[in-house]
Amino acid sequence: xxKKTVLLASACTLLMISCxxxxxxxxxxxxxxxxxxxxxxxxxxxxxxxxxDKCIQFKNDSVFNAMLWEMNDMSEEERNxxxxxxxxxxxxxxxxxxxxxxxxxxxxxEKDLSQPWPAHQIKEFKQKYDDVFMFEPYDSTDFIAHYKxxxxxxxxxxxxxxxxxxxxxxxxxxxxKALEEYFGSGISLYGNxxxxxxxxxxxLAESKYQIPGGDYVKVRAIPRFIELQTIENxxxxxxxxxxxxxxxxxxxxxxxxxxILRLTASGSGSGFEVYNVxxxxxxxxxxxxxxxxxxxxxxxxxxxxxxMLGHVGENPRNSVTIVTxxxxxxxxxxxxxxxxxxxxxxxxxxxxxKRRLVIIYEKNFIFTVIGFYFYFRPN
Length: 379
What we know:
The chain is mostly beta strands. It contains 5 helices and 22 strands.
């Protein structure tokens, strides 16, 4: 059987080859019995039935890569508009529904604090969405839904099960394996004004602050690699940040604010380069401190969750070993606060990311690790 398998991942451990940072392989469904309709004309994707659910099928891996690149410059709403229709329900659509339901529970309770604690409503809400989203494990006043997906770019074209197709191959989007990987150590439990510290925290910066005489606010930033790029025959790995902003009177809910992120970082290869939209080119910011302002949850703006910020180059190959995976590295420090809290309450964290691109020849298969997904291809 001519069988292809697509896996998505952010790092890997394959055939006894050790890889750094959060190794993960995504399970793949058997393609036996997969029936899809032929593509019409020049269509890049279509909506098909798979295992009883509607899902997006991309024409091939080249189309998928090209569309993923284009979507990095879009807001989540713009991405969803591309794929909506014909009964397909994306995780982005499910998140909109969950956000509305969660906010309604919060608002109804906070209108009259003398009423019983909404424990039953919160429990039912979590049960409704716990197969697709995850919830803060430390704070009983926080039941906001969060993507299990690693990177919101996938949310517009994966279904509730996290499935999509590339050609006749079934793929699952990469997800967080543990709650601690996304939520950290839970600063929300301690005090009114708390923040992460780079002595103890890595790859997650967060700050919680109580506005004098008012509500609590909380912001978070998590760096992530996005996809492999090839520019002028050189490999790069694009990167960005996922942002979170919340506000609380008694119960937390999502909140629009201006997040401020101060970043000093270096990258492998030619270094850390930031994409300048105005000149449509990259500028080297290796070791340079930059200040980023992101209007989070402003649906009128593109890249409301951060989108692609830039990329890092590829380290030179080591000719000594038989199989030498090119390495991509991104390291430095970050500081986060918002326009609703003083800079003195900023959260800090170290950044240390390493990823590999591996090509392994095994029998009649070529195994290629490409950015965030793995692709088995018959010789």
